[in-house]
Amino acid sequence: xxxxxxxxCKRTTFKGxxxxxxxxxxxxxxxxxxxxxxxxxxxxxxxxxxVQTVSHVTGERGLRGIFxxxxxxxxxxxxxxxxxxxxxxxxxxxxxxxxxxxERFLKSLFPHKSPDQIPEHPPxxxxxxxxxxxxxxxxxxxxxxxxxxxxxxxxxxEQFCGRQSPVLRVYETVLYKQEIQYTVVVxxxxxxxxxxxxxxxxxxxxxxxxxxxxxxxxxxxxxTYKKKLEVNRFVGRIDVSYHxxxxxxxxxxxxxxxxxxxxWVLNVDRKRLLKRVSACEVAPPCLLRPQETPLxxxxxxxxxxxxxxxxx
Length: 312
Known about the structure:
This protein has about 300 residues and is of the alpha+beta class. The chain has one domain (about 5-305). The protein has 6 helices and 15 strands. Strands 1-7-8-13-5-3-6-15 form an 8-stranded mixed beta sheet. A 3-stranded antiparallel beta sheet has the order 2-10-9. The chain has a two-stranded antiparallel sheet with strand order 4-14. Strand 9 and strand 10 (about 215-220) form a beta hairpin. The longest helix is centred in the N-terminal third of the chain and has 15 residues, at about 95-110. About 35% of the residues are buried.
């Protein structure tokens, strides 16, 4: 869940576009000291991830509200002031997703290697996938709901789209101080608020798209680089070594924003909610809503166990 309304910070927004890292770096009107850092060591760029799951993270009050409603709605206190009536989800990249992405990355570098040789190569991506896009912790709360994106799209289509498939569009690119957020909007076919945004591609050279899974070409997997990539195409090997200096950079990620009208609740069976919720630690910076309080992992696990005992 990457609801940006909790933030009070400078951002640059590009509507209807998913601009690549190189596009942003070449824009003469953007001033960003992290983006313009020219000392970043070599790292795995444009690695393609195929991600099946998304997650929504919230605090204790949000957790209890979701179980009370048996689903997800726009927080009532945000509705009067919220210009974008969304439920926010983030791509939930798994360790299997990282392994598969690494295989694709190695095959692209060494196309002449046999399928048996690729898995024998020492791990590479684990040295670089350290941004919040790959972490278990979250800035948005202690409770994470994780679902198959395909499942949520089906629920959304059944409940709000007359049992038709919803529309996915390229909504925006948002550049923060040290973060690039790519937003995909999901909406019913009869909602015309997003007609000026292009359809999300199912293939091609874009930043991300959907073809049963969300594919995402991650361009900046870490916000801090302590290691560097060394590719030896002659012997077909990649080595990872320490960089002489710690370098700070932007990191990128993808959010999926489900359009919600006032009063809408994206219903999910409570037993399904129980299976898909877990506790996590809060990572800095804390971006919980003002009425929420960050908890320790132990406190969050006890609250979750109590809710599961009462419902399950």
